[in-house]
Amino acid sequence: MLILGIDLEGMNENLVENGVNLAVDRVTEIGAVLWDTKYNQPIKIYSELINESDRLSISEEIEELTGLNDEILNNYGLTGDEIRMALERLSIFMKKADFIMAHNGPNYDIPMLRAMFERYRVPFPEMTWIDSKTDIEFPKRIIANSLSALEHAHGFINPFPHRAVTDVLAMFKVAANYDFDRIAALASSPKVKIIAELTAPNWKNQRDVDDFNKVKSKVSRAKFSWNPGNKTWTKIVHRILIEEGKLNYDFDWHLD
Known about the structure:
Blueprint: E1 2-11, H1 15-18, E2 26-36, E3 41-49, H2 60-66, H3 70-76, H4 80-96, E4 99-102, H5 109-119, E5 129-131, H6 147-153, H7 164-175, H8 180-188, E6 191-196, H9 206-221, E7 225-227, E8 232-238, H10 239-243, E9 253-255
């Protein structure tokens, strides 16, 4: 199996509070690695700095995080038609792969990359993406799933964090500990929402309240999220886990 790992670095207007804003957010670096799962080795490596004319200036925070600044991008970043040609080359890499992998891709890399392809009028290959944050069945001892936390949990340190290619290689070093066929099966399975069946007790009856709190504690430990709008505890899961009967929660639940 061939998997193309992709990571983007970018300058974003206010990613932490507002998420991606495709009107102004721009990519500053693209890293991609074509990985052969049979040999667990990188086959081809792609890396480009990007200097779009309408990008925001690199903030001190981003420079501290990535090491990139305006001077570096101005000196070495691709511009104009060079960017279009680089995206066409990346598209060739994408089409060679059976799957594309990114860490937290649905929330960042996919929308940012798709928007960039559209700006330069390069067709965006429609592929199945693996999210290494959610499509790998990590052991229960691993609680945090940021890339840096996963690196630590798997016994290594990325010497160049928040640089695109090295982050991709770190992602594959983590993923290589697991069955890639299983990862692909999870990525190919639709995600569905399940709801814990947790009914408010009679608050005047202490026994009811105690029983309710016991179930609520189980729901919380199972990483269900509280939705105050409709007052439900929900969780997004792969449908394949339901079909395989692997959701062995000690409380009742149903599909949304």
